[in-house]
Write a structure and sequence with these properties.
heterodimer, A: Arc Repressor Mutant, subunit A, 3 domains, elongated, B: alpha+beta, Histone, subunit A, 3 helices, 3 strands
């Protein structure tokens, strides 16, 4: 059997988080009462004219800058004509021939190293409305809500540089991280503010020519994207291995069944008759504007990760997690400004704070503890004022009450037992109560040290300073 | 030359039903129009930039990102006969099935 390689390109639609829609002043907000964010412009009433939202342009340019694209100072809006009930004008305003951005790339970190995925283009367009398909008694009907019609989108088109389902997922996740860094979209796949279609073909390894491509739609989570592409690669491989041919078609991912299904398609379904929209002049960008927007681009995840590894000696894995959201990285560096203990502060954020953040579904800055609190807590532990175990109690209390760690420590009378005399007494007691373990330790079974440390800390109700307990135990059991 | 087949194809894209007489009529009409416009081909446009827009000097005007008034749901639905629970009701069309 031949071995095949997959060739994958992704088309990603991203809703821009402007307040108003792209061509009218209706709210672009998600989740409002059906057909309440609509007006004659976005419902395509005759005689209305679109006026471009400047913030949507700025955000599209920011996307291009963050992804290293060539920003086009001249671009044109075109009409893409098709008939579908969610499209009130019977055409979508998009950019076909002269998009706002060309080129660009992003890097993904695969198991076999960093890979650069190139972009073809990014263009601006308007979203369509939402269709709800009736069931049961209403099965003959669909229901249309135009709130989403004309919400601003950018479509980010990659080159066919992706070689596996995993790479596709990594690409999407990286894209999401970058877009959230520059605050142009919340990139919520479940709510549809980030949507992905995949073009997939396979070819024998070593073959330069591309195989017949199949387009996959309807993948609404990162996991689904990976599963759908894995399935599709396996499906195409099986067909070719059996001497069959791939049909060029569009297939839908059926998440419940875990398979892709061919869409019924008319032969001429995809003739959109693009032409420049006479209602909109060309979009012109000045150098000044592009320069101004360049200054708004923050340090992006790749360089921030490299800096965290270098400046704070974090592992690649820890740095990855901390830069995965701009908020995490900002929180971390805010805490470091107050108390510079890069490793311990990273550990507290990653193990304790992010657990709370994920449990409560809150942003890191609203989870109940401020960067200063984490800094203070780590300082209290490092100075030996409280034990790590007590630190966890203090943390839980701080999250619950919003009090500062120092206040909690003094209120609860928490302090670490570091009095050598008192600790010596507890150690004596514990050793006496476990004579046979003490003998085994003395005859070389050193792993029993942990056993004794545990007992001493338990005996002290968690207050004993573990470092001192270690020392005293080693002396006592010599 | 625009053929009857072209006319039927375009009518299908536009979801318009034409009878045989109409197909004939529109084939002839559209050929007249295309022939008339074809006069433009006599002009030598080598080296001339296409005119993408009647106004290439100014860019398209931009609006501030400020939310203005929308229609209410009942206003939005007022012109349609087929409405149900705040939505426009249409015959079911599912892409892909």
């Amino acid at each position: 059997m031949n071995s095949y390689e997959a060739v994958i390109g992704l088309e990603v639609h991203v809703q821009l988080n402007t307040a108003a829609k792209i061509f009218c002043s209706c709210s672009a907000e998600f989740g409002a009462e059906a057909n309440s964010h609509v007006c004659p412009v976005c419902m395509g009433f005759p005689g209305t004219l679109p006026v471009l939202n400047g913030a949507a342009v700025d955000k599209a340019v920011q996307v291009g800058l963050a992804l290293g694209c060539e920003i086009q100072k001249f671009s044109i809006f075109d009409r893409k004509s098709y008939f579908y009930p969610d499209l009130p004008k019977a055409y979508q305003i998009t950019q076909m021939f002269y998009p706002i951005c060309l080129g660009g790339s992003l890097n993904i970190d695969t198991k076999s190293g960093s890979r650069r995925i190139n972009l073809t283009r990014i263009h601006m367009e308007e979203d369509a409305g939402k269709l709800i398909h009736g069931e049961g008694e209403s099965a003959a009907y669909s229901y249309v809500d135009f709130n989403r019609a004309s919400v601003p989108l950018v479509e980010i088109v990659s080159e066919p540089d992706i070689r596996s389902a995993e790479e596709a997922r990594l690409y999407l996740q990286k894209l999401r991280t970058i877009l959230r860094y520059i605050n142009v979209s919340d990139c919520n796949m479940e709510e549809g503010s980030l949507r992905c279609d995949a073009n997939i073909s396979i070819r024998p390894v070593g073959e330069a020519e591309l195989g017949t491509k199949v387009e996959i739609k309807n993948m609404n989570s990162f996991r689904n994207v990976q599963h759908a592409i894995e399935y599709e690669i396996a499906r195409q491989t099986e067909i070719l291995s059996e001497g069959g041919h791939i049909r060029q078609q569009t297939r839908l991912w059926d998440n419940d069944r875990g398979i892709t299904l061919a869409m019924r398609s008319k032969e001429n379904a995809h003739d959109y008759r693009y032409f420049p929209d006479p209602d909109l002049f060309p979009l012109k960008l000045t150098d000044e504007k592009i320069e101004r927007l360049k200054k708004t681009i923050p340090e992006l995840p790749d360089s921030r990760k490299a800096r965290f590894m270098q400046e704070y000696s974090l592992s690649a894995q820890d740095a990855d997690l901390l830069v995965s959201e701009k908020d995490y990285a900002d929180f971390y560096e805010d805490a470091l400004k107050i108390y510079s203990s890069p490793k311990n502060i990273a550990n507290w954020i990653m193990s304790e704070l992010l657990r709370v953040v994920n449990q409560k579904g809150l942003s890191i800055f609203n989870a109940g503890v401020a960067p200063a609190d984490i800094a203070q807590l780590v300082k209290l532990i490092e100075s030996g004022a409280i034990s790590g175990k007590q630190g966890k109690e203090v943390f839980a209390e701080a999250v619950e009450t919003g009090k500062t760690p120092e206040a909690i420590v003094s209120e609860k009378g928490l302090s670490q037992l570091s009095d050598k005399g008192e600790l010596y007494g507890i150690v004596q007691k514990v050793v006496k109560a476990n004579p046979s373990e003490a003998e085994r330790f003395k005859s070389g079974e050193e792993k029993l040290l942990g056993f004794f440390v545990g007992l001493v800390i338990k005996e002290s109700r968690g207050k004993a300073n573990p470092k001192l307990v270690n020392e005293i135990l080693k002396e006592t059991l010599k | 030359m625009i053929s009857e087949k072209d006319i039927m194809y375009v009518a299908d894209l536009a979801k318009i039903k034409l009878d045989a007489a109409e197909v004939k009529k529109f084939t002839s009409d559209l050929n007249d129009i295309v022939e008339y416009a074809a006069m433009l081909k006599e002009v030598d446009v080598a080296g001339v930039e296409p005119m993408y827009s009647p106004n290439l000097d100014e860019g398209t005007p931009e609006r501030e990102d400020v939310v203005g008034a929308s229609l209410t749901q009942s206003e939005a639905l007022a012109a349609s006969k087929y409405i149900d629970r705040g939505h426009f009701r249409v015959p079911k069309i599912i892409e892909g099935q």
